[in-house]
Write a structure and sequence with these properties.
By secondary structure, the protein is an alpha+beta fold. It is built from 2 helices and 4 strands; from the N terminus they run E-H-E-E-E-H. The chain has one domain: 3-Layer(aba) Sandwich (Rossmann fold), CATH 3.40.50. 24% of the residues are buried. InterPro entries: Pept_tRNA_hydro, Pept_tRNA_hydro_CS, Pept_tRNA_hydro_sf.
Length: 87
């Protein structure tokens, strides 16, 4: 499974601004790749997600500087990387 995270800032204030270019690119990819899905808000993961068989597109719904928290939650949820262990 592959993940693509598009970074941006939540809220109407940042819609259609350079701050949300990551969100805009994911919208374009979802359309071009004909995912047949719309982004669904997953409050538990603090992200909007499209999940297909081999691909997960994710728009973290945290502000840019806090996006690592949402990325970590998504990767932990899908058991790709376990960030809960201190190394």
């Amino acid at each position: 499974m592959k993940f693509i995270f598009g970074l941006g800032n939540p809220g109407i204030k940042y819609q259609d601004t350079r701050h949300n270019i990551g969100f805009d690119i994911l919208d374009i990819l979802a359309k071009q790749w004909e995912t047949g899905s719309k982004f669904v808000n997953n409050k538990k993961l603090n992200s909007e997600i499209i999940k297909n068989k081999n691909l997960i597109l994710t728009k973290p719904q945290t502000f840019m500087n806090d996006s690592g928290q949402a990325v970590r939650a998504v990767l932990n949820y899908y058991d790709k990387i376990n960030f809960t262990k201190n190394t």
